[in-house]
């Protein structure tokens, strides 16, 4: 029949849909036609019924044809849409490929720009020049995994570390500048190495700048913030420094060093010009935060007490931290005082808080030194270099000559220091240098209420230091440890009570090593959390103190306690030679250290009252020198100088 003679469009999903729609209808019509034909043959239907059935079938077939025509139109439309969609998909696919190619080209361009930016930034940073913010942004945007350092770069880094350890920071920067073109130069470690070298040469803005190049991760951002906080403290930029410290704490709320720097910014050492007293005594010294080296914590107090005890005066003291730049504002404050005291301590040292202004620990630019018009008193300062250490550049020599020219007195704490400094000065300045012992050696004379010591406690305190360990022990620490194990055991067998005193946390290592290597437990007294008076009481109650740190010998001596010294630094030999008691010193690498130290210690414990009397007599001579120097700071007409000594 007509209704079944038209096929659906073939091919594609629309044709399949059409077939599925038409087949049931065709089957139904075909069944009805067959039934009608059978009725006609069998004569079971009338002519009228047949005519009516045929008319109905034709009408339904005609309707189906219309529907088929509509379906064909819809199929053609779907096919067209499918083809359009396929074309659109192909167009999108092509567009995506183009975008990928563009991104790949952009990444290649960014990487190339990053390489160029890295070398340019490295050279600017090493020269101490400002870093263009846009160039920094380009570099940070192009950050990628850095390649392993080339052999040339690795050798240069090691050489720079060695030069920095010798306090030749400019030479270290020059060595790194030679390899600034090496791929991966600005890795995490080298960025902060460069920042430290820039700070050590007083290029503070550049040091703050370069720390940004370490990256954008939390570890890099925290350390960069700490670099900015510390460097800003050196330059008195407390607003920026506090913000940097807070930034580090936002990343790591438990970061103790960040908390320390925040406190130091919130509580600056020197009051601003409007708040600083006038007519007092300026005092440039090492002012340590809580937990610092006990000897250095006590020292500024001892200097002030010496001046007050010698003169009877009670001046207003205006503090200046020696590690901060002594800039124009500090000069203005100092010039409004009666005098400026610098010291004491081993400030003539190139590798503690290095700077490019003076070459020693007082960070005073030459121009600031020249602008001082107030009497300048260098008080009980030491030439503090370790064995094998030296000033590698002319910066220190030039500045110590300028210091001697500017100073009313250049007081050094031992004759060994006097000899070393006079070697650097022209002959006409030699007389400016005077012997001014450390005030901690005469604490019984300068402290308002010195603790009373008494013989017979049997308590022996031992102190060992581990900073710059290779210079102290020259590779002989294992043998030293063995000697100390035998020494502690022998003293205990003789009834002594032995403990270790730690002026710093690091000093506790001796106790840990004795326990680990020899199974000997020795109690540790942590002094770096003590006030000066608490530490003084501890040392005054001892029968003997065996010290390696300078102030672990000088402070107990100043309190009247017998002392012996483990000599790992020339300053201890200088001190004992000034006393006329070189036999109280024992070289840490001496062949017979154990036997000789034990023999002398037993002698001290058996004759403690005699040793105490000897210490008291030796103090009297030291006090004369300290008192004379103090009275030059505040002459008698300005104070009420005591006459009883």
Automatic annotation (TrEMBL):
It comes from the Bacteria. Residues 293-568 form the Polysaccharide pyruvyl transferase domain. InterPro entries: Polysacch_pyruvyl_Trfase. Pfam families: PS_pyruv_trans. Transmembrane segments: none annotated. GO terms for molecular function: transferase activity. Residues 47-81 form a coiled coil. Keywords: Coiled coil, Transferase. PANTHER family: COLANIC ACID BIOSYNTHESIS PROTEIN WCAK. This is Polysaccharide pyruvyl transferase. It comes from Krasilnikoviella flava.
